[in-house]
Amino acid sequence: MQDFIAILSARLVGAFERLGFDPKWARAQPADRPDLADFQCNGAMPAAKSVGEVPRAVAERIVADLAEDPDLAEANCAGPGFINLRLSDAALTRRAEQIAADSRAGASYVAVPRRIIIDYGGPNVAKPMHVGHLRATIIGDAAKRLFRFRGDEVWGDAHFGDWGFQMGLLIAALAEERPDLPFFDPALRDEYPVESPITLEDLERLYPLAAARAKEDSASRDKARRATAELQNGHPGYRALWAQMAAVSRTAQKREFGALGVEFDFWYGESDADPYIPEMIEDLAHKGLLVEDQGARIIRVVRAEDKRELPPLLVVSSEGSAMYGTTDLATIVQRSRTIDPDLVLYFVDARQSDHFEQVFRASDLAGYLQRDQLEHIGFGTMNGPDGKPFKTRAGGVMKLHDLISQAVDKAQARLDEAGIGEDFSPAERADIAHKVAIAAIKFADLQAVRTTNYVFDLDQFMSFEGRTGPYLLYAAVRIRSMLRKLRESGNESGPIILSDPRERALVLRLDAFDAALRSAYDKRMPHFLCEHAFTLAQAFSAFYANCPILEAPADLRASRARLAEVTLRQLLLTLDLLGIEAPERM
Ligand code: ARG
């Protein structure tokens, strides 16, 4: 099934070739001026230039070649040599029926499916999840859905931060605060408590204190470093304590991801790469990649063409512990042995780009996964009104949990103001408020161009007007309830008839779905899907405002019902790819 860009581009290729021009310029694109055309081709100008002809004359010859095309109601030249194309109603109707009959609403599959691991979310054990992990989670999850929908085989991995310095920090801090805990008893080798004596509150209280102290005081920093190394080298008490801390945090984090509607295929952590580390280090040494450097072991990853010097990858610290980059490199080994992916995508804050470049180059040098199989998909930060990364009113880092409850409260207030769901049960109202809140947060995050920062403004995200999640939920629910009423009054959908410009415009939006999917996929930019959802909802609302349905003659009523059905299907599919779920009614 081809969309109009593909169909018209193929026609243009034929015309360019018949006239002796390079077909590389024969490309249709959506018209800049929808009042003048549906699609346009700008290729006559470069084609003319390449052979020294007058662009307008070349455009006219191409237009003449297209004159007999039954899919085109009009082809003409404009300005210096633009080619404007207007589709015939027959072509539009045919395409509309095709999309309506398709459970995927016109979406194509990738030509060659790949095996892809998506590394996203990345919370740290023992640290509460904060808004910094929000974008990683939301964007990564949308990418996972999109890649899977387009036909790739995809695994999502949370890659918990559970093996680094923060574990040593906590162990050292606990050893000081509660030296009586059995984990610190050197006489004990097993028989540690099964029930964790450490709560999430303990961890959340201790971590910031310990981190702040280590920053100022080198003695406690050294203690934490030693504890990290001892943990990694198998200290039985530390291992037992570590397992409990990891389990306590993981439970809390699963709950938080659950509230966002995010699930992973693998809940692995950095520690799961640990078994691969000794062999990997031996292998790296054997390949001559490990260099001694002031007691540490590093891999140099600079390249001659680099514009600035990329620091080396630290593999073993001078205390003998594995670092962030070590576990990431060993995770590549683990992934290539267990999954053998064609591609691994890392959805992580753009500020970690050097880290990933180091790891990817090391992987390439060592012959694990190649550089072009590894991609860091960075993104900007969510900022406060002051333009700096978002903080709570008290100046602290906003916990994800608090952010979600704030959004739910606001959603409930908005629904109450608008009198939505007054006669629903409290459980249904709560469910709707939750869905509206999540839609607001996710849509705001996803519609911002991935690489840019955006400002957190819950009031704006929660508005039922404009480019927002709540607006789109409302649009979907409205179509759903309209269709329900139609069905209840015995109306079925039927063949599509185009009788109004708003119907044409709606069909062109439906046709544009696949291009939005492909752009979002190729560029790893979910905002193309947000834009599609929004313009589709708008095209539908213009159609609905101008094309009566219930009062229309029977054939138009049936046609419009079908247009509404397919719009709803495509809108819900798009929202689902963004990780947004619409309530049945609201
Ligand atoms: N835990 C890390 C952090 O909070 C993010 C992990 C990203 N994934 C990875 N493979 N390094 O900064």
Largest sheet geometry:
4 strands, antiparallel
Shape: globular
Roughly how many Å apart are the termini? Answer: 35 Å
CATH architecture of the largest domain: 3-Layer(aba) Sandwich
Please give the share of residues in helix. Answer: 40-55%
> What would you report as the Rg, rounded to the nearest angstrom?
29 Å
Strand order, sheet with most strands: 1-2-4-3
In a nutshell, what does this entry contain?
This protein is an alpha/beta fold and 586 residues long. It contains 20 helices and 13 strands.
List keywords for this structure.
single chain, 586 residues, alpha/beta, Gyrase A, domain 2, Isoleucyl-tRNA Synthetase, Domain 1, four-stranded antiparallel sheet, four-stranded parallel sheet, 20 helices, 13 strands, globular, binds arginine
